[in-house]
Amino acid sequence: MTFPLRSFALLLAAALALSACRPAFSPRKFTDNAALYRASLERLQKKKWDDAVAGFEKLTLELQSRDTLLSRAHWYLATAYVGRREYLLASQEYSKLAENFADDSLADDAMFESGRSYARLWRRPSLDPQYGQLAQVQYRLTATLYPDSPFRAKAEAELKRLDEWFASKDYETGESYFRRKAFDSGIIYFRDVVKNYPNTDRARMAMIRMVQAFRSPQMNYREDAREVCATLVTLYPTDPEVLKACDGMKPAADSAATPARPAP
Q1: C-alpha to C-alpha distance for 204 and 214, rounded to whole angstroms
Q2: Cα separations (Å) of 226 from 51, 77, 117, 264?
Q3: Dihedral (C-alpha) 138, 141, 142, 143: value to the nearest 10 degrees?
Q4: What is the band of 73 on the pLDDT scale with cuts at 50, 70, 90?
Q5: How many CB atoms are closer than 10 A to CB 12?
Q6: C-alpha closest to that of 235 among 200, 261, 260
Q7: CA 4 from chain center: how many Å?
Q8: What percent of the chain has pLDDT over 90?
Q9: Which of 3.40.80.10, 3.20.20.120, 1.10.3720.10, 1.25.40.10 is the CATH number of 167-264?
């Protein structure tokens, strides 16, 4: 038995009509903030992000500063912004909570989440690192202001990850010069990687590139190569790439004098 097409169309139209009759979520219809809070939280839990934003935004503007719901309203408003992938707005709301309610139980959570929202806006190391820098600030504040927080370890781990990204950005710039054999310019960036991000893997790679540049026929600065190799071999005594780059680089005292880089 087949279902008549006409009957199906009628049922579909009836369903659409019923859904159209359902009142839209409107924060203005709530005269009681507690009721609006409960309704907004219900919309948030159902992932109705637009409704949740509308409700909690109204609450953050209307609740008194001493109202216990205000910090939660900021938290859930930020959460709704994350749901809509509006990470800049989310980070700002989390920051408001952490700054205005420093003694609140959610303050450390909010500081960490603010950093994470900023970090989400820096999608690749090659892009403008502005949001990565803002994320660093929030993570450092989390670790410094809340040393006993369970988010401290997470913040420190995120700081290490961001260091790798910052180091990668400078390293890739140096690498582009290195590939074009513009060794002097490349070395400037490699040195910045080693100086600013010494605990990253990019620092090891930057030093290897420096050795290769110094040993190139265009430069032939063997004393400089030897100095970098002394550090590399000390830090990475068994690393195959280090041993290959520094092959034949004996300490200066054990080798014949070779011309050093001329003074600029």
Answers
A1: 16
A2: 64, 57, 44, 19
A3: 130
A4: very high
A5: 10
A6: 200
A7: 56
A8: 83
A9: 1.25.40.10
Q: Which two tokens stand for residue 28?
A: 């203005």
Contact 109, 76 (CB under 8 A): no
Q: What pTM value is reported for the model?
A: 0.80
Give domain 30-149's CATH number out of 3.10.150.10, 1.25.40.10, 3.20.20.70, 3.30.360.10: 1.25.40.10
pLDDT, tens digit, for every residue of 222-232? 999 999 999 99
**How many of the other CB atoms lie within 10 Å of CB of 121?**
17
